[in-house]
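A brief tutorial aside. Many learners find it easier to grasp structure tokens once they have seen a single protein encoded end to end. The record that follows does exactly this for MFS transporter. Read the sequence first, then the structure, and try to relate runs of similar tokens to stretches of the chain.
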Amino acid sequence: GNISGIVTPIAIGYIVGTTGSFNGALIYVGVHALVAIISYLVLVGDIKRIELKPVAGQLS
């Protein structure tokens, strides 16, 4: 969300400014991508199709 849009450029700028290379910044982004994937798998869980039941008196 909004916090990542603020924190990420600052963190990447700090990493690049300190090391003089984008390697650390790419690792930072990759680690955050892995954390996001794991969080998605753990928090969302199984995705199942919703089955709608017909309303009484309604034709399909």
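Self-check: Residues 2-44 form one domain. If you spotted this yourself, you are ready for the next section.
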